[in-house]
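discrete fold record:
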Amino acid sequence: MSSNTTEAFVRTDFLPQQTAPVSEHGIVGWVMKNLFSSPLNILQTLVGIGLLYLIITPLFRFGITNAVWEGADRTACAIDHVGACWAMVKAKFPQYMYFQYPIDERWRVDLVGLVGLVLLIPMLIPFVPLKKTNAILLLVIYPVFAFILLYGGWFGLPIVETPVWGGLMVTLVIAVVGIVASLPLGILFALGRRSDMPLVRSVSIAFIEFWRGIPLITVLFMSSVLLPLFLPEGVTFDKLLRALIGVALFSSAYMAETIRGGLQAIPKGQYEGAQALGLSYWKMMNLIVLPQAIKHVIPGIVNSFIALFKDTTLVLIIGMFDLLGAIQTSFTDPKWATETQDETGYLFAALIFWVFCFAMSRYSIFMENKLHTGHKR
């Protein structure tokens, strides 16, 4: 046998599987890939960390570390270098929620909120059945139920006039009514603006451009102060009702432009295909066009809802005390007058608004991922 003969080796078993390097997976891998992948990313990351430190550290110190959580009056918070006076928020919490709504009748507000939440949750979950029944209960029956319970005058309930309404209750009433009313009105005016009928198109354009051309604060002021001057003597409308109408009309104009953007994004072939099937105009819009258009503009719709929710604070200009207004009125109480009173109240208001707006934003992202299945790879 030759000395140059080589021996071959064939492996009969597999090597044990090894995990990927730490720098390639998990938290460390994500950090290395997204935050420290290049010199520019490293610089941006360091600058961002520095800015977050400068912003979050004093806020954390004020709201958590140096905050006062318990106390009966201002003496608990009247200390040098003290942080947020959460004891004041705890004492004033009922005022922030209900304002001057009678204490003995506040169970009505709680019941309205609980029923609304019970009806809203299954409406937001895609796989829950009986959507049409739920929608009828939420959009038709529930508003009547809420009005009867909040205002009273029926079934032995004492009447609670709207001037004593306030706090988070009024913020939610205005926001919910504006959101629910603006979407269908916006759809109608968006379709009207794209209509082939000159009269319908002209009316829709005039409505949209008129309401988009004036600020909301002017709408509220005119509805509260000037509108009664044009009504016959002895005829009046509730101030809250005037504000609701003004907010709904104002927001519907912006919603119409958002929906119109979605309609223009639909290819012409979708319209032609629906017409080739013999569908009427409303069936074509209801079954083919609008579902696709609304899906395209979900971010814009939710953005309008968030802006409307924050704009409810403007009702203070017409003497209605929403959440922010109720918080501001609490600043006049000498029992809780401290150096950090204003900062604590505004921080609490910011937290409440952020929770609602963030929830709407996250649900928008969820619905986008749920509906945009045709764009997944």
Q: What stands out?
A: The mean pLDDT is 85. The radius of gyration is 29 Å.
